[in-house]
Design brief:
Structural class: alpha/beta
Keywords: Lipid metabolism, Methyltransferase, S-adenosyl-L-methionine, Transferase
Family: Belongs to the CFA/CMAS family.
Number of strands: 11
Strand order of the largest sheet: 7-6-5-8-9-11-10
Shape: elongated
Strand content: 15-25%
InterPro entries: CFA/CMAS (IPR050723), CMAS (IPR003333), MeTfrase_dom (IPR020803)
Organism: Streptomyces anulatus
Protein name: Cyclopropane-fatty-acyl-phospholipid synthase family protein
Radius of gyration: 24 Å
Oligomer: single chain
Distance between the termini: 69 Å
């Protein structure tokens, strides 16, 4: 009988009708595939049982998180090959592979079943979100989702994000460090908002406080930061005290729907709107509009997906939903702009930063890999594997234009229609204009 690696390679190539571009190493020590290619390591045949029980992305994700499969060699090259074979083959290929009636699929499943070993399938890894019930995006459910993602240990995030502690797309120049690029992004946001001494800024989804600190220290703003993460809030307050900025910054554990102390001169929402969800997005836009003074500005920094031919067919990514951002949803840029305008905002500028996020994610992956043992101790082996896969795959998605990220600058118009915006666009690219470093 052929060894496990050769059998798996033959089954996969028969199913996909093309050669595998990765090498397989199986649990029995056998190897098959092109020499020198990245190696897909299948450490235990339990991984096959997971795939049979949950075909597709979720089964593979469970095996990865459990440590039953791994990749040796270039992670990005391997993920690119696998994505090209399994997810990016076009509608015709997908239609020919997925139906259970397809004889190739049935033969592939029988071959896996023969190799997979005794049932039942193993339980999902502990890092997987347990199924939620009830309507999406209630206050309680959103708080639980945010806690799953962000309350995994500030020490872990410090290793991944670096000293800046900014968990959103940086703004790169050639030769700059991650910390330089994150500082430049925060300063870009402040300049787009036109912040000046004494302005009230609401930072929605304030993370570990980096935006609030920069706006207060460099521009003299009075900042209210809100988050649903207890760990983020505790870390942000500690940093603010160390900076001597407690008189300028307040950090609250609070839902954006419960903020009632407007009006504010400006609002920043950086990497937060992805958690809002389509059923709540108009409410989000209405609430932020109501919290701004007439003439006040909103900077909405948000990941966007490509539009679907049938928008009703959009589904949240199974791996992301189960392990990374529970209930998170991406919307096309056009839909986000339309909703903001329906709420009363005037959109004044849109800047695409897609390539910047790919660079940022690659730096975060490098940080995680460099500090792997410490990261595992700070959280769990499964959680560290989740973040490595999620960030590397996301980097490729940005590079291949599967998703993007955009800064939308919008204004709440004055009663007569004025905007208090400069006549010439993009004046924020000309100089920093802050009152400090």
């Amino acid at each position: 009988m052929a060894d496990a690696a050769s059998r798996l390679t033959a089954l996969a190539e028969e199913l996909l009708s093309e050669p595998l571009r990765v090498r397989i190493r199986a649990w029995d020590g056998s190897e098959s595939g092109p020499p020198g290619a990245p190696v897909l390591v299948i450490r235990h045949r339990r991984a096959l049982r997971r795939l049979l029980w949950k075909p597709g992305e979720l089964g593979l994700a469970r095996a990865w998180v459990a440590g039953e499969i791994d990749i040796e060699g270039d992670l990005y090259e391997a993920l690119g090959h696998l994505a090209g074979l399994l997810w990016d083959r076009g509608a015709d290929a997908k239609d020919s592979v997925h139906p259970v009636r397809d004889p190739k699929v049935r033969a592939f499943a029988r071959g896996l079943l023969d190799l997979a070993g005794p049932w039942p399938p193993p339980a999902p890894p502990a890092e997987e979100v347990r199924r939620r019930t009830g309507p999406l995006h209630t206050r309680r459910r959103d708080k639980e989702a945010i806690s799953h993602h962000y309350d995994v240990g500030n020490d872990f995030y410090a290793l991944v994000l670096g000293p800046s502690m900014v968990y959103s797309c940086a703004y790169w120049q050639d030769g700059g460090t991650l910390e330089d690029a994150q500082r430049d992004k925060l300063d870009l946001v402040c300049r787009k908002l036109g912040l000046k001494e004494g302005d009230r800024l609401l930072d929605v989804g304030c993370g570990w406080g980096s935006m609030a600190i920069h706006a207060a220290r460099a521009y003299g703003a009075q900042v209210t930061g809100i988050t649903l993460s207890q760990e983020q809030a505790a870390h942000a307050r500690k940093r603010i005290a160390e900076e001597g900025l407690t008189d300028r910054i307040e950090i609250r554990v609070q839902d954006y729907r419960d903020v009632r102390d407007g009006p504010y001169d400006a609002i920043s929402s950086i990497g937060m709107a992805e958690h809002v969800g389509s059923v709540r997005y108009r409410e989000y836009a209405d609430d932020l509009y109501a919290l701004l003074k007439p003439g006040g500005r909103l900077l909405n920094h948000q990941i966007a997906r490509r539009p679907e031919k049938d928008e009703d067919a959009y589904r949240i990514d199974a791996f992301i939903d189960a392990y990374v951002f529970p209930d998170g949803e991406l919307a096309p840029l056009g839909r986000t702009l339309a909703t903001l305008e329906e709420a009363g905002f005037e959109a004044r500028d849109v800047e695409a930063l897609r390539e910047h996020y790919a660079l940022t994610l690659r730096r975060w992956v490098a940080n995680l890999e460099q500090h792997w043992e410490r990261a595992v101790r700070a959280t769990s082996p499964g959680r560290a594997r989740v973040w490595r896969l999620y960030m590397a795959a996301s980097a490729l998605s940005f590079e291949h234009n599967k998703i993007g990220v955009n800064q939308i600058l919008a204004v709440r118009p004055l009663d007569g229609g004025g905007s208090r915006m400069p006549l010439r666009a993009r004046t924020w690219t000309e100089s920093a204009g802050g009152t400090g470093a």
